[in-house]
Amino acid sequence: MRIKDYHIAIDEISTIDLEADSIADSRRILAELNEREMILKELKKSIRKDIKNMEIDFLERKRKINRDYSGGRSPGIVSKVRGKSKVKELKKLEKQRNEALESYYDVKYIIDDLLIQIDDAKEPLNSYIKKKLFGV
């Protein structure tokens, strides 16, 4: 999934009205929170998979660079004139990796934060239901 798709899904999930005036409202909101929690958990699995796949891709690209330089690609005069060296290519690859993964890790942290917020939002709703039903 693209990072933009994650942001769209998170925007849709994060907006909810938590005001409950009755037991029915509280139950409806709790059901909605549970549904959104399940969606967030699926998004978290998906983003973990995307991060893992990106890591594998970068490792393959790094292995290719190492293989190219060890397999006869000379770091001699021609490559110096062109400005290519193994170290430069590896640093460039590492920079690309970090930039690409940073946004995915940010989304993962947002998802974790939303899951915590959902848990925190469930507590007062459950307390409200218990108080109205049992007078506790």
Describe the structure.
It is a single chain. The chain is mostly helical and 136 residues long. The protein has helices at residues 3-14, 23-70, 77-82, 86-134. Helix 1 runs parallel beside helix 4. The two termini are 46 Å apart.
Overall shape: it is rod-shaped
Q: Average pLDDT value?
A: 87
Q: What is the N-to-C succession of helices and strands?
A: HHHH
Percentage of helical residues?
over 70%
Low-confidence stretches: none
**Fraction in beta strands:** under 5%
| Total count of helical runs of at least 4 residues | 4
**What composes the largest sheet?**
none
Helix/strand class: mainly alpha
**What is the gyration radius calculated from CA atoms?**
24 Å
Strand tally? 0
Cα(first) to Cα(last) distance is 46 Å
